[in-house]
């Protein structure tokens, strides 16, 4: 037996609305395929940025800043595509940056990201702590430290790191990590 609301529904209205909904759906499919045709063969802004950074590195072999930027682009590209080959490329660039100048917090932070993605949590913790020693105001260092502690099972130390991150840079990155810890532990009290 159909529900009562269904019996009361005006079938004439449904017969008028269904073709409109179908037409909108078909039109949107056509528009999507047109967008794909328009973008075929074009390089993305990210790919252009990657090429530009590669060229700058080729011209200046001691350019650790652009190596870090390129490594970060590769880390992001790996996240978007799921292709871990980009993480390996990032790691190689970051190792070169460390050889040129080991005292850059961004390099340590990005190595921490690479280590986290490779399930090397102790190593990520080392890089996060090094980044923190270099720059006490690097909120992302606390993110790496907290993420490593969380994966290693030390939830209290992870929480502490995330709250330190929030104190320096309140925003989506710190708050989403805190929210994740609260959800994991069942601590839903507002703070």
Highlighted features:
single chain; 191 residues; mainly alpha; globular
Please describe what this structure looks like.
- This protein is mainly α and 191 residues long.
- The protein has helices at 4-8, 11-39, 45-59, 64-81, 85-100, 105-117, 121-134, 139-152, 155-168, 172-185.
- Residues 32-37 have low confidence and may be disordered.
Helix and strand string, N-terminal first? HHHHHHHHHH
Give the % helix. Answer: over 70%
Choose one word for the global shape: globular
The percent range for strand residues is under 5%
Give the low-pLDDT segments: 32-37
Task: Please render the helix and strand layout as text.
Layout: H1 4-8, H2 11-39, H3 45-59, H4 64-81, H5 85-100, H6 105-117, H7 121-134, H8 139-152, H9 155-168, H10 172-185
Helix pairs in contact: 3-4, 4-5, 4-6, 5-6, 6-7, 6-8, 7-8, 8-9, 8-10, 9-10
Provide a short characterization of the protein structure.
This protein is 80% helix and 0% strand. It has helices at 4-8, 11-39, 45-59, 64-81, 85-100, 105-117, 121-134, 139-152, 155-168, 172-185.
């Amino acid at each position: 037996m159909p529900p009562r609301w269904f019996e009361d529904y005006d079938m004439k209205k449904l017969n008028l609305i269904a073709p409109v909904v179908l037409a909108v759906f078909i039109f949107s499919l056509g528009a999507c395929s047109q967008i794909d045709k328009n973008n075929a063969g074009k390089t993305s802004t990210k790919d252009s940025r990657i090429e530009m950074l590669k060229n700058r590195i080729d011209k200046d072999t001691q350019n650790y800043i652009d190596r870090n930027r390129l490594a970060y682009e590769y880390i992001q590209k790996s996240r978007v595509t799921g292709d871990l080959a980009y993480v390996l490329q990032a790691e190689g660039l970051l190792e070169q940056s460390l050889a040129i100048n080991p005292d850059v917090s961004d390099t340590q932070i990005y190595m921490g990201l690479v280590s986290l993605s490779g399930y090397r949590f102790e190593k990520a913790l080392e890089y996060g702590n090094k980044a923190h020693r270099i720059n006490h105001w690097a909120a992302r260092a606390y993110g790496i430290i907290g993420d490593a502690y969380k994966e290693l099972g030390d939830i209290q130390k992870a929480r502490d790191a995330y709250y330190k991150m929030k104190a320096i840079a309140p925003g989506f990155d710190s708050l989403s990590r805190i929210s994740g810890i609260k959800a994991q532990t069942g601590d839903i009290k507002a703070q």
